[in-house]
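Lecture 7 notes: from sequence to structure.
We start with the chain below.
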Amino acid sequence: MTSTASAKSGRVLAVRFNADVNPVTQKWLNDRIAEGAKYDALVILIDTPGGLEDSMRKIVQAELNAKEKIVVYVSPRGARAASAGVWISEAADVLAMAPDTNIGSSTPISSTGANIGSDLRRKVVNDAAASLRALMKSHHRNAAWGDQAVRVASNLTDTEALRMHVIDRIAPDLPSLLKQIGLGGDTIVTEKMGFFTRLLNTLIDPNLISLLFLAGIAGLAFEIFHPGAVIPGAFGGICMVVALFGFSVLPTSWAGVALILLGIVLLVIDAHVTTHGALTLSGLVALGLGMVTLFHSAPAPYHVQLWFVLAVTGVIGGFMAFALTKAVQARRRPSAMPAFVGVEGVVRDDGLVSVRGELWSAATEDGAPLRPGEHVAVDGVDGLQLKVHRV
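Predicted structure tokens for the same chain:
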């Protein structure tokens, strides 16, 4: 904190932060910290499992440069300040906890949720430990515990944290805490995340982003191959924009995006050529690998879940198998339809002919165009196309 509030306003801004630490929640909290300059103090009522390091560092910087007093209160009962939440907590001018809460477990882990490799681990752990020690030392707290929180994932209850001087106070509720720090007479103005912020926070779920990306591609592709349908194209456009928003928020692997696109291209090609499912299998493998690696640089909570990948590839694979089976049956069907010869039909739009209630692609022997409304008779079947002459 660079300076205290220039004049007493008689008000305290209390904000509830009960979400993961990511760019969406970081932007919301930093805006509240800036808004808190009009108050005597800003109280962050925190309950978080942690989140992204970049977002955490931006919140910490905002706390350290805030004009008002920053108070972090781990609450309500049963809440926690874990991982990135420890840095946010220790950056506060006053750090308090409610009964039955805990703080700690700040060891950096890899994107898979496992320990980082030895050489890189030393660099990452040393950097994290140094930054947490610096925060705690500057606020006259037990910096030695900061090392333990990072190196051995130490986690403390409220009473243990107070005894080891990791926090400053324990309070059963917010009014009691404010009374302890000399702000007991101030009016409490509360704020919590609104609908739009929570919506954006939901939309950056990696599973949802992957699904929206696939839906966007499917909708836009349908519009391209069937111009004028409108609704699939509009739906696909909306899904694609939301997916791109998610890509811009989370650390995205563009190799994963490329694999997903390659998988879809292979599936489309296999729908138009005869490969007996080889391209479909290759496309599903590429699609699955792309989804798995899409957010591999993010912490484990922001990965696409394996069960989701298996479900999506299974559904798509089942659909492709059904479609290919029907296509093979359709290719074989004309040889068993000699009864079509001599049957009359009526020409519809786009060169289609209605014969016995079915629409067939048709052409005359001389290649002359067929006009809607004309009556024709079938001379034969060539693959999936009828050979006809005008009646």
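Points to note: Residues 1-6, 110-117 have pLDDT under 50 and may be disordered. Residues 306-332 form the longest helix (27 residues).
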